[in-house]
Design goal:
The protein has about 250 residues and is of the alpha/beta class. The protein is about 45% helix and about 15% strand.
Length: about 250
């Protein structure tokens, strides 16, 4: 059986590294992106260089119409999905709690929570035994922020990742008998472009002294944890979390 993975938000950072490692593990990969087509195509080229198949599909996971089109494209061009990595996520500029608007909260939750729900739903419809699937694995990207709260910076983002933790546990219990394992990874301070989008590109360097390992993490270090949870090496693991956070 072909191994086929969807990685959302895979044009850069953790998503891109996950897609590349998946190819080395024998997966054909759908590289989902929202805006960065050039970077997504670079990831596709690196996957194809390993001999695996890859496609880049533009879709905003916050849009149900886009998610349905994304999955239809995978069905038609790659085949039956066996793995989903719910990586796509956004945050907005650093802010104290009292300045977070309802509009901002909706934007963050629509992508981080709504997008993950939609993508997981469509994956279950394809992987579960009762729908004719052969099983599979889902890994959700949470964050250490779900436990730490991100006071004075991103309480809305942290709350959205707390919702991902709850979804991971509930979905894992619901589909375990249908051949689907569901787990999550909680990255800590990782060197990605997301910090710049929040208004502080050097955030990891500012905060790394508070990390027991005294450094920020690399996207590939998170990707390796994701690939372990997807792989058969974690065959008895579901509803679990791996913190990739240097001890913080």
């Amino acid at each position: 059986m072909d191994k086929i993975m969807l990685v959302t938000g895979a044009s850069r950072g953790i998503g891109a590294e996950t897609a590349r490692l998946a190819a080395l593990a024998g997966f054909d990969v759908c590289v989902n992106y929202r805006n960065n087509q050039v970077e997504a195509l670079d990831v596709v080229a690196s996957i194809e260089a390993t001999g695996q198949r890859a496609i880049a599909v533009q879709a905003d996971v916050a849009s149900e119409t886009d998610v349905l089109r994304l999955y239809e494209t995978i069905d038609n061009e790659l085949g039956s999905l066996t793995a989903l990595v719910n990586n796509a996520g956004i945050l907005e500029s650093q802010s104290n709690f009292e300045n977070i608007s309802l509009q901002r909260l909706r934007r963050v939750f629509d992508t981080n929570v709504g997008g993950s729900f939609l993508c997981a739903r469509e994956a279950v419809l394809r992987m579960s035994y009762k729908h004719g699937g052969k099983g599979g694995a889902i890994v959700n990207l949470s964050s250490r922020a779900a436990l730490l709260g991100s006071a004075h910076e991103y309480v809305d983002y942290a709350a959205s990742k707390g919702a991902i933790d709850s979804m991971t546990i509930g979905l894992a219990n619901e589909v375990a008998g249908q051949g689907i394992r569901v787990n999550a990874v909680r990255p800590g301070l990782i060197y990605t472009d997301m910090h710049a989008s929040g208004g502080e590109a050097g955030r990891v360097d500012r905060m790394k002294s508070g990390v027991p390992l005294q450094r920020g993490g690399l996207p590939v270090e998170v990707a390796k944890a994701i690939l372990w949870l997807i792989s058969d090496e974690s065959s008895y693991t579901t509803g679990s979390f791996i913190d990739v956070s240097g001890g913080r």
